[in-house]
Amino acid sequence: MNIKNLLTRTGTGIIYILIIFAGIFGGKYLFIAVFGLITFRALFEFYRMVEKSTEYAISKAFNIVSGAVIFGTVYLYLEGICVYALRAFLLAYVLVLFVSAIFFKRGNILNNVIYSAFGQIYITLPISMLMLISYRYNTTLDNFHFVFIFAIFLFIWINDTAAYLVGSLLGRHKLIERISPKKTVEGFIGGIAFCVGAALLFARFFPEYPAWFWIVFGLITALFGTVGDLFESLIKRSYDVKDSGHIIPGHGGVLDRIDSLLVAIPAVYLYLMLVPNF
To answer: Domain coordinates of the chain in residue numbers?
Structure first.
């Protein structure tokens, strides 16, 4: 990587982090704005990738708008503004998929329905879960609690960075070469080790949660973040594309930046549900 590309990658990476921090620490309205846009763009990149590589048409615009609406109705539900909107729209979305199968001529309608629904499960559902986490485990009067969201992002970034550095310096054994030839077992272990270290620091800054809680939190985030990264690599390999997009110079698309989160978030949410007294 030359100096120009390195500077570009560093600069855009800093901007991306600042935008994420604005969404996390700027309150619930900035959260909705930032992560709503992230949902919209990630869905666009996913359905565009699928649409270009299949012989049957994917209703890209409908699915992207539907994902944004689902994200918005989660907020309405959690705020108590309209508790029926989420369930009503989800049912309407499924019904539209069924109706489209009958009235629109497509080469393989079953695949069209599957890809449409999968995009919402893969992208919209995990990002919406960030809101569920922040509202369920809040300790503030405005019903928004940022600590767990911040922890997820920080552990993901630490895991990715440490895995890359340790893998570059010490990597000898491939993790899953058929999916990601550059990932190594040594890098994988290094990423987990650094996440455990970060978890111990979290235990000091947020002592209301015990050290074991943060250690398991970090382990789950690192493990399933790696799964998310590998899963998106598998999708891109299936469609023979290098990046999901080019909106972030030096980093690819938004989907490339949040791939680890899309599996880590549901795993963390399940963990929080299972831990007593949390």
So the answer is: 28-145, 146-278
